[in-house]
Every structure is written in C-alpha cells, then in structure tokens.
Amino acid sequence: MGHAMKLLVVEDENKTADYVRQGLMEAGFVVDLARNGLDGHHLAMGETYDLVVLDVMLPDVDGWRIVRALRDAGKQVPVLFLTARGGVDDRVKGLELGADDYLVKPFAFSELLARVRTLLRRGSAPSQPDRIQVADLVLDLARRRATRAGQRINLTSKEFALLELLARRQGEVLPRSLIASQVWDMNFDSDSNVIDVAIRRLRAKIDDAFNPKLIHTVRGMGYTLDAPDDAPSP
Amino acid sequence: MRPMMPLRHKPRQSRPASLALRVTALVGIATTLVFLVFNWVILRSLEHHFAQQDAHELEAVTTALAQPLHQLASDIASDELKQHLANAVAGHHGMTYGVYDGSGNSIYATPGPDLSKLASSKKLVNRITADDLIVWQEDQRSYRGVVVQLPADDSAASGYRIVAAMDIGFHLDFLAEFKRMLWWATGLVMCLALGVAWLAVQWGHLPIRKVNEEIRAIRSSKLDVRLDPRDVPIELAELVFAFNDMLARIEEGFTRLSHFSADIAHELRTPVTNLVTQTHVALGQPRSNEEYREILYSNLEEFDRMGRMIGDMLFLAQTENDPRNLRLSTIDLSELVRSLFDYFEALAEDSGITLGVKGAIGSIAADREMLTRALNNLLSNAIRHTPRGKSITVLLSQDEQWTTISVVNPGERIPEPDLPKLFNRFYRVDPARQRNTAGAGLGLAIVKSIAEAHGGSVAVTSSELVTRFDLVLPHLRQ
C-alpha cells in the first residue's frame, strides 16, 4: 500500500465513533467521520474513499439508503456495515443491497481492523504470490511447504493454513475468532482454547528452535506474525 | 400490574351465543315441540271420538228409517208414509233426515238444512263408519251427515236413499274451547320451562364462576397455586386439569426466567466488581506505563469474557424466542464431525486424548452453523472432562424418525440428580470450578436450545465408565 488509504466512518454513537476513528488512524488510515446519516450520505457521494464503514441504525438517513445511493451512482467502494441486531434479516439485506461485509455490534476493534484490511486487500492487487517470506521463514504456497533458515518444517495441512493466514497478513493482529473462521470455518466464539493450543504447537515448530521469534501474542487481542525490525536475524 | 395481553379480535366474526341462551332455547324448543305433538294427538282422538259417536247415532236413525220402508206396501199413500217416517225416529234430538227415491226426488224431509244435495252425492254406504261421514256448513251451522242406499229389491223402497244429518255445533264448540285451553297450557308450560331452564343454567354455571374467581386470584407471585379438581363438577375437572398443567408450565418457565435474570446479574456482577476494584486500585497511585498496560490487558480479558457471555445469552434468547428461524441445508454428518475433529485435533493431542467416530449415516437437513456450534460445545465439553490417554467417540445413528449424535467420553461419573440440570444455564456440577476453565456455563444450554429449535432433544447418561450426551434431531424437510 503505497499511499495512505482513506476511509469514511458513518456512526452516530459518539463513543464508538471516536474509538473507531482513533483506532483506524493509529493503524495508518486517513479517516473521515460522519456522525449522522445526512453527513454520511453527503460525504460518501461527494468524496472518493477506499472503504466505507457504515452503521445501519442511524437516526436520520439509514445505512441501507446510503448503500443503495452509492450503488445506484455506480460507486463500487467496498462497504462494511455495522449492525446492532444479530438477526439474519439484517445480514441478508445488507449483503443483497451490495454491502461487502458486516460486523455485529458490539465488536472487538481488532476484528473490525482485520476485516477492513481484508476488504481493502480484496479491492487492490489480486496477485496471488506463490511464495511468502517473513525474515527467514519461507512459505511455498504452491507446494504447501514451509522452511525456516533453509530447514524444511513439517506441518499438518491445518497448521500450514494457519501459518499462511498469519504470513499473508504479516504485521496484523488477528483475533482468535477471525483465525477460527478463516482456517476452520468455525463462525462463532468458542469457549475452548483451541486457537491458543494450535498457535502454541505451530510456534513449537517454527519458532522454538529459531531466532528471531516470529509469532507474537498480543494479549487480549490475538496473534500476529512479524519480523521484528529492531532485532535483525543473526 | 403486569401488562395484559390484548385479546386477539378476528375481524367481522361475532362471539358465539351464550351457553345460557343456547340451553334455554333448546329446552324451550323441546318443550314446545313435545306439547304441540301432545295437543295434536289429543285433539285428533277427541275429534275421532265425536265422529264415532255421531256415526253410531246416524246409524241408529237410518236403521230406524229403513225398517218401515221395507215393511210397508209399495202403494201406501204418501201422507201415511210421511207419518210413518216421522214417527220412526224418536228420541234423537238435533237430527235431520230425509228419504229420496232412486232419481233423487224427495219422498220425505224433516225441516232443517237442505239434504237434497247430499242425496245426489256419490258417496253411498251400506254400513256407517266414522270415516264415511260428510261434514258441511250451512247457515253458519255445521252438520255431519251420511247417505245410505237401500238395496234394490222388490219392496216399495227399492233404490231409495236415506239421508241423515246432525248438527255438530255443540261438539265443535267444545273442541274449540278445549283447544284454546290447550294453547294456554302450552304457553304457560313453555314459559315455566324457559324460566326453570334459565335458573338451572345459572345454577349450573356457579362452579364456573367459582373457578373463574380462583383463577383471577392467581398472581405471578404465587404461581404455585393449583385448582382442586375435586371441587368442581366432573365436566369441569378436565378443564381444571388442563389449566393446572398450563399453570405448571408457566410456573416452570417463570421460575427459570427469574433464576436466569438472577444468574445474569450474579454472573455479570462479579466481573464488573472486579473491574471496578482493579481500576480504583490502579488509579490510587501513579504507576509505570508497563503497569498500566498490564491492567488494561487484564481488563480486556475480563471484558472479552463478559462479551462472550452476553453473546451466548443473546444467542439463547434468539433461539428460544424464534425457534423456527432455521436456515436448513443438507449436511453430511460424517464430514461435519471430521471437520470438527480437525478443529479440535491440536487441543485433543495436547490433552492426550484421541477422537473417533463410529457409524455412517446419510445426510440430514439442519442449520449448519447451529449444528456445528452444538457439536463444538459437546466436543469441547467432552475434551474438558476426559482424562489423559483416553478417547472420545462420536456415535452416529439413524432410524426412520430420528438422527442421534452421541458424544461418549470416559470420565468421572456425574451424580444422578445433577444430570438433568446439566443443560440449565450457568449450571456447573462443581460450584467451586473456576469460571475460566469451564466457560460461562452456557455451552450445554446452547446445545439444548439448538436441539429444540430443530424440534429435537438432548439427553445425558453417566455411568462409572462413561458419560454420554445424545443430541437427537428429527428428519426435517428443507
């Protein structure tokens, strides 16, 4: 991503709006915030954004109308909508109207960030690399093999899928729920510590015998795979 | 005061007639009908009786007239004949008669109504019965008469016709009077019957009113009240039983709901209190950034747990409020179990537990996300309670009606009284068990609500060797 991505957040609840904006700005995005539907509609139609985060329950112009107006005007900007109701109807309606993804309130910010990044990536270069390198960890996606410092590492297919997810989204904090959903297709919060155990086992294979450590736990949020800048590999 | 549910009004449909009205009307109609039939029978037999009497009298008169006609010579003078005929009939009052020859000419006629028309009537008889009588009116008087044809022989009276008639006004007056009296009686009896029926119905409804009052006295605070079926007539006992059953179900739901609210409050109060205390302490004195971060992390974990619990409760509420909101799809159960094993593989290996599946069955229709969640909860529960080195088995079986998914794990025996409570919300067999390891205690409640949303059920059995959870689902059509 060469330039800073520009996002529009339409959210009428002040506290949520503030922390979403702050979080997104600290994640490196340029953020415009509209605190009501009318401003949101105006900004969305007038400006050019890389992505719109849209609360559907707005007091004046509801989110559905903004999505419809965008699509009617031929704007293909990705839309992530926030819904307070977990109802199936809302999800189906939003996706039918042309929204790209949804999050049910209340949501964890890390979840929102992960989804925003997914949508932005989907919009940009669709190039599928057949090789990902993070420090001295190399993933051969075509042959589904991993090597670290030149040594072949034996991974089960799910372990490879997990490592691939982390590597593709290098530097991003991935919440457990996102990992469960992407790797195992489990789309609900599980109260078991399956993800923690899976990460621990993956760590044992790719990090225990090597330096620097690549998989990091971000307490309370999730996991990330990153090569530390300050500690170059020896 | 609880809000009352509004009665549902169907448009343009009036209320069915009241029971009192129905019973009273029925009694009234029945009484009237019975009396009408009774009246008819009485009047008919009276009339018949009178006709019979008249027939006898007319017969006597005609016989008395025929006698002299046969015995007299054919050349008798007409005056003498008339005299004979006039004397032949004595002791019969109100009687009119006449004799006519074969061609209808009057030989003799007493004063009174004109009988000549009768003489030419075709209705001739030899023997008189009540049915042969002819009734007619003349000068506002009613008569009953008969025509007798004498046999054709060699006597002077050969082919003669005797006509006799009598005034039946007296009989008719009597009948009319009798009829009027019967109508009055009928009306009176009907009114009486209606009144008695009305009273009987009101009296009969007394137990209903009593039951009604008892029901009205029931408040949400005393749902344990039951109506005594021995206090009501046998016809109402069934209703009382049904009402008691309904009350029991309401009580159960109400108790569960109030426990649930209390549990929610309790479950949320503990972490909130912790958070508040922790924050107070943290703000009590200046700390290093590292310490603040540590506190925020710790808070985050607590918030996360609360958030998950609220999410689970919301899921339960939604599933139970709208249990038919399923998105059914065809699911290959063996494949679903395999993918869940995939998911739990690392955790199970870590705990030294092996996972196995037995039984192969066809696809079923179910809500994939819900079913996955239910099986996830059952498996994660089983893993939590299985000792190291043992194995968990998922058994799949199917008959014409049901598909059963059983999760069997070796482990400590669960005491019998605890078994049914396992599926209650927030229930934990060991109260001292840490909240952290056992989750919010909603996992099995969610399994139950998912099973019930599909029209199925859950069950659990526990022996010294194994604990077994059954998830039973009906065959649904997509």
From TrEMBL, chain A:
Membrane-crossing residue ranges in chain numbering: none
Q: Name one GO cellular component term.
A: protein-DNA complex
- Start and end of every Response regulatory domain? 6-120
PROSITE patterns reported in the protein's UniProt record: OMPR_PHOB, RESPONSE_REGULATORY
**Claim: DNA-binding is one of the keywords in the record:** yes
Domain annotation OmpR/PhoB-type: ranges: 129-227
> Which Pfam families does the record associate with it?
Response_reg, Trans_reg_C
Q: Could you list this entry's UniProt keywords, alphabetically sorted.
A: DNA-binding, Phosphoprotein, Transcription, Transcription regulation, Two-component regulatory system
Keyword check for Transmembrane, yes or no.
no
Q: Which NCBIfam families match?
A: cztR_silR_copR (TIGR01387)
DNA-binding region, residue range(s): 129-227
4-aspartylphosphate carried by residues: 55
Q: Example GO biological process term?
A: regulation of DNA-templated transcription
Q: What is this protein called?
A: Two-component system, OmpR family, copper resistance phosphate regulon response regulator CusR
Gene Ontology MF terms in the entry: phosphorelay response regulator activity; transcription cis-regulatory region binding
- What PANTHER family is this protein classified in? REGULATOR OF RPOS, TRANSCRIPTIONAL REGULATORY PROTEIN CUSR-RELATED
TrEMBL record, chain B:
Enumerate the spans annotated as HAMP domain.
202-255
> What is this enzyme's catalytic activity, as reactions?
ATP + protein L-histidine = ADP + protein N-phospho-L-histidine
Stretches that traverse the bilayer: 20-42, 181-201
Is Nucleotidyltransferase one of the keywords? no
Q: What does this protein do?
A: Member of a two-component regulatory system.
Q: Histidine kinase domain: from which residue to which, for each copy?
A: 263-477
Give the UniProt subcellular location, in the record's own words: Cell inner membrane
- SUPFAM superfamilies recorded: ATPase domain of HSP90 chaperone/DNA topoisomerase II/histidine kinase (SSF55874), Homodimeric domain of signal transducing histidine kinase (SSF47384)
Q: Which InterPro entries match?
A: CusS-like_sensor (IPR048590), CztS_silS_copS (IPR006290), HAMP_dom (IPR003660), HATPase_C_sf (IPR036890), HATPase_dom (IPR003594), His_kinase_dom (IPR005467), HisK_dim/P_dom (IPR003661), HisK_dim/P_sf (IPR036097)
The principal location of this protein is: membrane
Keywords assigned by UniProt, alphabetized: ATP-binding, Cell inner membrane, Cell membrane, Kinase, Membrane, Nucleotide-binding, Phosphoprotein, Transferase, Transmembrane, Transmembrane helix, Two-component regulatory system
Q: Which GO terms describe its cellular component?
A: plasma membrane
**According to the entry, what is the taxonomic lineage of the organism?**
Bacteria, Pseudomonadati, Pseudomonadota, Gammaproteobacteria, Pseudomonadales
Pfam families membership: CusS, HAMP, HATPase_c, HisKA
What is this protein called in UniProt? Answer: Sensor protein
| EC number in record | 2.7.13.3
GO MF terms held by the record: ATP binding; phosphorelay sensor kinase activity
Q: Which top EC class is given?
A: transferase
The yes or no answer to whether the keyword ATP-binding is present is: yes
